[in-house]
Write a structure and sequence with these properties.
8 strands; single chain; binds 3-methyl-2-oxobutanoic acid; 255 residues; eight-stranded parallel β-barrel; 42% helix; alpha/beta
């Protein structure tokens, strides 16, 4: 069996000029398929709230949801690095952040991810000091979508770029092994990537990041009612399901 990908492997990828491929999974068969297909990181993202649980955004996802989905995804992973998201309001202070991170590690996650830069430095430091590897997340923060009034592009002007670089540096200084950069202008993500030693993992942030992450449902067309503009689906699984079901219904009715 291949050895498992570690947080240190991901951290070193930047210096070794290896791009990092990351996707989401929330269940056993998807996690196993991604693991067998060679992805570096499997994220049990709180995007589960939107593409599986049918919520309008990620703010309704609970710790119980994340514990459940981390447990079942972990059963399918033997090689990739499994990371679990800390959901909305589950890391309001360092103590709570560490306790909830431990719950996700107890279910099989090897690392956790949380949203926020400078404002979350104390929580990130506490998690890392507790021996728990952490991936940061800056730029557009889906857990703040209600306050922000939508999924808006970040890093459009100089002040915005400098603020994002400060966020990235805070996450790095607090001990994160990598950082997601979500919906950030491509020139801005290029500058953040150049300013940090840890790998940047982009989503909707252009080609200059050190790796890419997508919600698997978007990549494979399994959430056909909405596809973000920056995604180019590689399959149409939703359409394949509809075709198969329509054929089954027709055969059944034909007797
Ligand atoms: O919840 C999620 O799936 C994420 C990634 C898309 C970055 O945070």
């Amino acid at each position: 069996m291949e050895r498992r990908v570690t947080p240190d492997d991901i951290r070193r990828a930047k210096a070794e000029r290896r791009k990092v491929a990351c996707l989401t999974a929330y269940d056993y068969p998807t996690a196993r398929l991604l693991d067998e297909s060679g992805v570096d990181v499997i994220l049990v993202g709180d995007s589960v709230g939107m593409v599986v649980l049918g919520h309008p955004d990620t703010t309704l996802v609970t710790m119980e949801d994340m514990v459940h989905h981390t447990r079942i995804a972990a059963r399918g992973v033997t090689r990739a690095l499994l990371i679990a998201d800390l959901p909305y309001r589950s890391y309001e202070n360092p103590k709570q952040a560490v306790e909830n991170s431990r719950r996700l590690l107890d279910e099989g996650a090897v690392a956790v991810k949380l949203e926020g830069g400078r404002s979350k430095r104390a929580e990130i430091e506490a998690i890392v000091e507790a021996g728990i590897p952490l991936m940061g997340h800056i730029g557009m923060l889906p857990q703040s979508v209600r306050e922000e009034g939508g999924y808006k592009l970040k890093g459009r002007d100089e002040a915005g770029v400098l603020a994002l670089i400060e966020d990235g540096k805070a996450v790095e200084a607090a001990g994160a092994f990598s950082v997601v950069i979500e919906i950030v202008a491509r020139e801005a993500s290029q500058r953040i990537t150049a300013a940090l030693d840890i790998p940047t993992i982009g989503i909707g942030s252009g080609e200059f990041c050190d790796g890419q992450i997508l919600v698997t449902h978007d990549l494979i067309g399994l959430f056909p009612w909405f596809t973000p503009k920056f995604v180019h689906p590689e399959a149409q699984v939703g359409a394949a399901i509809r075709d198969a079901v329509q054929r089954f219904v027709a055969h059944t009715r034909a007797g």
